[in-house]
Amino acid sequence: MITALLFGTFLIMLLVGVPIAAALGLAGTAAIATAHLGIISVPTSVYTGIAKYPLMTIPMFVLAGTIFDRSGVAQKLVRFATSIIGNGRGSLAVIAVVVTMMMGGISGSGPAIAAAVCGVMGPSMIRAGYPRPFIASTIAAASATDILIPPSVALIIYSVLVPAAPTTSMFAAGIIPGTLAGLALIVPTLWLARRHNLGTELSHEPRPPFWSSLWDAALGLFAKVLILGGLRFGIFTPTEAAVIAVAYGLLLGMVIYRTIRLRELYSMLVEAAEISAIILTVIALASVFGWALSTLSVIDPITQGILNLGIGEGGVMALLIVLLVIVGTFLDGISIFIILLPLLIPIATAYHWDLTWFGVILTLMIAVGQFTPPMAVNLMVACRMTGCTMESTVRWVIWPLITMLMVTIAVVIWPDLALWLPRRMGF
């Protein structure tokens, strides 16, 4: 009865348009009050949900992404990518994917990267004759890979919820699958562009000089080296790395490039604070829902039921992937982690799956959900920036979706795609 109330209240609130964070918090509170578990546990769960030291990295990395966006790094990366790829048929679409991957190593937030790359690449792609739904689908799918490429907010939250998978290990584990996913997305992007003869208007334009483009982009690209190198050699912790990224971004924007003025700093701080507040509010209120789940002993029967299905280890993994694809189209990644990890981690432990590898698979599936309608946050941002409807992107977004699922299957079959680098780096 209480379990039905918990999930029923949550689903009804989602259907009537209540924000996910509020729906999670209110459903959890209703179940706690009805079961007489002590209403004082609600504020306690809210506090303990966000009173975790590693979560301090989130506001800093969000601020770093805002600073790098305003500093003009994206434009320099576009010029550098163009110098490598050129201006042939479909080249702008490929450049958008490559630039999105490069930006992902700086911010780690898919919607923020989607907005930044759409702002830089969108107008030129529209002028070159690319359909707006194609632009939105391509950039939304490519920006979904950014939650795998460190620094990643999703990987940070997973490591907070699963202490056996530390942040440094998750960062290292996400590099190869994230890069592989980005490179794999180039295949359907280029195939669609050439099939529909997109971007031919720019085929005769000259390439920018390679060495000067590399020189201009080098300082922006060095941010990745600075963050990952510092973590690898133990110079600073992930939280300190986030602060270093902010300081480095300010150095580029205010001193070297001089694209950020002092009076613009306040607006960037406000923007980063608003985004961070949204993320932390979801974590705090979803913690109430998660506490109700665990206290009401809802998780154990479901876990045992899945383990006793008799479909074997591979069948359970396939079932979880299908489940996450469906859930990921309706819920954001943070909510999925907080709601489902108490269910999924016991299953992973029962089959002796490596929790770092398992975290990468879950993050890959969340990445798929970020550009799969109807609740695709990256796609929403990209559609708004390019001026098209989400419905118009369906015919284009299906191909990146298939590609990402193939990458997920590859990581499932070959776990070393995620685990080799953490072992090599000693994490």
Automatic annotation (TrEMBL):
Record family assignment: Belongs to the TRAP transporter large permease family.
Location relative to the cell: Cell inner membrane
TM helices/strands, residue ranges: 51-68, 80-99, 105-122, 134-158, 170-193, 214-235, 241-260, 272-294, 314-343, 355-376, 396-421
TRAP C4-dicarboxylate transport system permease DctM subunit domain segment(s): 7-414
Organism: Azospirillum griseum
Top-rank taxon: Bacteria
Matches recorded under InterPro entries: DctM (IPR010656), TRAP_DctM (IPR004681)
Subunit structure and binding partners: The complex comprises the extracytoplasmic solute receptor protein and the two transmembrane proteins.
Keyword Transmembrane: yes
Name of protein: TRAP transporter large permease protein
GO terms of molecular function: transmembrane transporter activity
Entry-linked Pfam families: DctM
Record function comment: Part of the tripartite ATP-independent periplasmic (TRAP) transport system.
Membrane topology, record value: Multi-pass membrane protein
Keywords attached to this entry: Cell inner membrane, Cell membrane, Membrane, Transmembrane, Transmembrane helix, Transport
GO cellular component: plasma membrane
